[in-house]
Amino acid sequence: DAGVTQSPTHLIKTRGQQVTLRCSPISGHKSVSWYQQVLGQGPQFIFQYYEKEERGRGNFPDRFSARQFPNYSSELNVNALLLGDSALYLCASSSPGLAGTETQYFGPGTRLLVL
Amino acid sequence: SQKIEQNSEALNIQEGKTATLTCNYTNYSPAYLQWYRQDPGRGPVFLLLIRENEKEKRKERLKVTFDTTLKQSLFHITASQPADSATYLCALESEEYGNKLVFGAGTILRVKS
CB-based contact (8 Å) between B40 and chain A? Predict the structure, then answer.
């Protein structure tokens, strides 16, 4: 079975531009989460979607938005890019288990560089 | 303030020895704690999950302990191998914060042959 897939793998943008990142979850997983990972740090939670509805949002500005489609794939959009948005963007899918346990299955990430 | 702290220094050990990684947290009351492995340029890979009412969990050469009084989890790799070299991340799920996963910065483990 295919794991979580993300596209593109790498992206270079300039300040002020907008970017859209895409994610396809593991088949059967209905929850998708997005994380930002800056070099030397752990992943930081941005959004979680479950059944096409936003289930959680981290401490990120409104320039960050996301959505989930009927096939459970997801897009992360970032507007008005800043140099500080340069990071590895990780998508993770999960299948809620007992008592809310949600192991995250991560994709390979999209490396975004903002110049 | 809330903090998750992992060994900031890389851990260098000899092949065959036991590696012990530490995860300390403050101002969280996690229902679960998870450990992930991350190789350079790749996404994290889930290793183990331990619940607040479990003191220890094992999987092959891996062992995790969880002490909610000390607010600490220890992650052990026995009979370590060079292939175990990676960054190991701990992550907390806290009901207080909508069950979102909060990660530590990770500890780099290097196993030398």
Answer: no
Check if the beta carbon of residue A77 is closer than 8 Å to that of residue A62. Answer: no
Architecture of domain B3-112: Sandwich (2.60)
In-domain check, residue A52: yes
B56 vs A: CB within 8 A: no
Option in B45, B100, B105 nearest A48 (CB): B100
pLDDT for B2 beyond 80: no
Which residue, B85, B81, B103, is CA-closest to B93? B103
Q: Tell me how far apart the alpha carbons of residues B6 and A60 are, in angstroms, rounded to a whole number.
A: 24
Which chain B residues are within 8 Å of A106, Cβ to Cβ? Answer: 36, 43-45
Number of domains in chain A: 1
- Whole-number Cα distances in Å, B94 to A101, B5, B34, B101, B102: 11, 16, 11, 7, 8
Among B41, B42, B100, the residue with its CB nearest the CB of A58 is B100
What is the rounded CA–CA span in Å between residue A9 and residue B79? 35
Task: Give the mean pLDDT of A47-65.
Answer: 91
pLDDT tens track for A60-102: 999 999 999 999 999 999 999 999 999 999 999 988 754 456 7
